[in-house]
Design a protein that fits this description.
307 residues, globular
């Protein structure tokens, strides 16, 4: 149980790193290159190591709940697409805008924000659930993204989406962990001690990257429709998913992780996908900007929501 002083310190670090990253993203001309390098470092080194360590030390109960996590991820994303399609089907919006809003509603920030929050409020034992939720999301995006792009953007770039999925380093780390586990490999205590530091480093870098990503892609374009998307993404969907999660009766750790995942704003990755699929990436960036800003005041309430 964390003391009040520890929570205040963790909140302070959380907001400080995002704020510094955001300021850097807004003011520095080097923000795009730094953001690209930092994202690459996280995806290619720190997050795969965290995934590898977490899966090799995960409990049998945690691994037994992987199918439930995958099912919840599929349900959450398809439900998000369906609700967004219904809501944005009739308004006089460009097709590119409708497609961008659908992707923004369906695909959340499943790893860069959840990993720090899980490590802060739950612990490293929650990382496997984050990993499998993220991997499932990426697989869905690889197939659904090009379909949305072909219908609303006229650009069915399957190679773009599938390549990003197959070469996603945390996914490769999952395969490596499963192979090592099948061979009966156990991490030596010395290696585990070294890798435990990786969790702290990953937390700080991920928060800074979130700030840079939002600052660099800051947009306030078509706020009205963007706010509708945020309301679906961060109010309606969480309400539905949390009820389902509680009903499923999963373990305490997995339940908390799924609640966190349900609350997350749209992913910065959606902006990249929207651009690659010929959709309105500026509108997607606005949804990400507003969603991330509106999440920040909710963070201090997470200990209550996860109690």
């Amino acid at each position: 149980m964390q003391t009040a002083e520890e929570l205040v310190l963790r909140f302070g670090i959380f907001y400080f790193l995002i704020l510094v990253g955001y300021a850097f993203g807004r003011m520095s001309s080097h923000a795009p290159s730094v953001n690209k390098s930092l994202t690459s470092l996280l995806l290619n080194l720190f997050l795969p190591l965290l995934v590898l360590q977490s899966l090799l030390t995960a409990s049998a109960q945690t691994m037994s709940e992987v199918p439930a996590v995958a099912m919840l991820a599929v349900l959450a994303h398809l439900l998000g697409l369906l609700i967004a399609w219904v809501v944005f089907r009739t308004p006089p919006l460009e097709k590119r805008a409708k497609g961008a809003l659908m992707l923004s509603v369906a695909f959340s920030n499943a790893i860069f924000l959840p990993v720090p929050l899980v490590l802060i409020f739950i612990g490293p034992e929650g990382i496997p659930a984050v990993t499998f939720f993220t991997v499932t999301q990426l697989c869905i995006l690889a197939f659904v993204g090009p379909v949305v792009g072909s219908v609303y953007g006229g650009k069915p770039d399957w190679r773009f989406a599938v390549k990003k999925t197959l070469l996603f380093p945390p996914l490769l780390a999952v395969f490596a962990a499963l192979a090592l586990a099948a061979l009966g490999v156990v991490l030596p205590s010395v290696v585990q001690s070294v890798l435990s530091v990786n969790g702290t480093v990953t937390t700080y870098l991920a928060l800074f990257e979130v700030g840079i990503g939002v600052g660099h892609r800051f947009s306030l374009f078509d706020i009205r429709n963007a706010l509708e998307a945020v309301a679906i993404r961060q109010l309606i969907l969480p309400a539905i998913i949390i009820v389902i999660v509680v009903f499923l009766g999963l373990s305490e750790i997995t339940t908390k992780v799924m609640i966190l995942e349900a609350l997350m704003p749209s992913a910065v990755t959606v902006v990249i996908y929207a651009a690659g699929l010929g959709l309105d990436s500026e509108l997607a960036a606005t949804v990400v900007t507003l969603g991330t800003f509106l999440l920040l005041p909710v963070i201090p309430l997470l200990p209550i929501l996860l109690a």
